[in-house]
Amino acid sequence: MTLTKQEVLAFLEGGPLGALATVSREGMPEAALVNIAVTRDLELVFETIQTTRKCVNLRRNPKAAVVVWRGDETLQYEGVADEPDRHTLVPLLESYFAAQPEALNHCGWPGLTYFRLRPRWIRLSRYGRTFSVRELAFAA
User: Fold this and answer.
1) Beta bridge partners of 17
2) Mean per-residue pLDDT, 12-24
3) In 71-130, at which residue ranges do the beta strands (DSSP E only) sit?
């Protein structure tokens, strides 16, 4: 059975945090916990300060992965990030602030920026009484 877009959306709407993995200049993995929101197109939106390792890494290499978990379920998400221009960003911020209302207090932070992560591959794994691993892939 193939993983559906609706299942991914429902799972991500229930999890406000994700562990984001990026790649350093030296090719080493670097991870950080981020507040996330999901759009109807399964894009993830998150904020960061421009001086953070994740921002520097994503500007150099936009490939990233996120893991979101709930109990005995994990969702692995791999994709490509970008920093949307201000016109593209408006609807993304609507999704982000709906999922992360406390983030409205961050709007005046110096160097704040937003990233959108577009999916390339998603896997939902259930490790409880009913074990399952299902995937959803996207065209590049």
Assistant:
1) 35
2) 95
3) 73-82, 112-126
